[in-house]
């Protein structure tokens, strides 16, 4: 049967956008906030493009009211943001700083006044530097510090925020932060990256319990995973075995204990040359397996892998942990290949079918658990025209393609409740500095003026009508 001309979504489907604190807030020294690992990392020479930092970012801390008004003008029904841990609990220990919590109270109240549902992410990579100085995520104590922080935020905002997300992309925190070192804190220790992954899992489970105790029962708790779609270069058994190993490290290491209460045996066996897993205590897996109310999926591009042939060692391509050091423990005999097709400014191939495959996998992996696409988007070299307008037809085509696959998944039975584009605003793109623009809203970094791009208007129409507008002719 031919596809209908109008692609409609369920009436309650949430149309949102995502951001993270360090990428947009700025005000890094105000109201009691102390440095996070990203403050330290970005101020370390050679770590970020051009030595750029999030000190000012796009000044959302002072401009949040205008930004919320812009969301409302575009017609968004939901907004996913993260709380800055060192803004709320500067040392990662002890009582909360009310001035820090007050910012998020004001932000949430502003969202609710405009009819926009807040979705709060507790951790988007900004560990307080003092906790890193004490060992960071490779240390077990960090998981307990995270649970205490979660309780403080839950007590402060649980009366007005219903949707909670514990961790954003723990794979990046563990393996880019402690394995390849291309993200903060910039360490390159494969064993530490595996310990970090486990303690992120443990912190998640402890935080779920802490939030349940601190908040109304109707609030919903999720986690956002950047689960990879891993495909083989060929059907050769060695390539299929390579897919299994990468899939375990990208996906099973998190969804195994979170959803099923166990790490994949194939993961444990493949990484025994790096760690004996003695850091996993008997009760940990039960704690990590705390029941969830939803699951967030972040998707950008698929991975294409094979077994190495002869002396060839695989490039760790951008999007899969590119850098001098591998983020993939015990995988030096696996090659990452460029996937075919058009690419974004990040060099990532555009393949909307990967999002469909990811959604359907988790519909099977966690039957009955509602799903949200909590990040999806593309970077392009956007520039204003002489009239000051910003046209980004490539992003419109990208969003249309990926949202069409979300709708196909819904048609095929997946319980997808919402989509959050990455990102609302152009912002500090981690180690890339300000050179990669993911925003639906253009930000002039000299003046901080916001200009909605044509994709923002297109997406806003989708949000208002619940249907995908056509892709305009270029």
Automatic annotation (TrEMBL):
Catalytic residue list: 375
Family: Belongs to the glycosyl hydrolase 1 family.
Highest taxon above the source species: Bacteria
The name this protein goes by in its record: Beta-glucosidase
KW Magnesium (keyword) present: no
Native source species: Streptomyces achromogenes
Signal peptide limits: none
PROSITE patterns: GLYCOSYL_HYDROL_F1_1 (PS00572), GLYCOSYL_HYDROL_F1_2 (PS00653)
InterPro entries: GH, GH_1_N_CS, Glyco_hydro_1, Glyco_hydro_1_AS, Glyco_hydro_1_beta-glucosidase
Reactions catalysed, as given in the entry: Hydrolysis of terminal, non-reducing beta-D-glucosyl residues with release of beta-D-glucose
Key words, A-Z: Carbohydrate metabolism, Cellulose degradation, Glycosidase, Hydrolase, Polysaccharide degradation
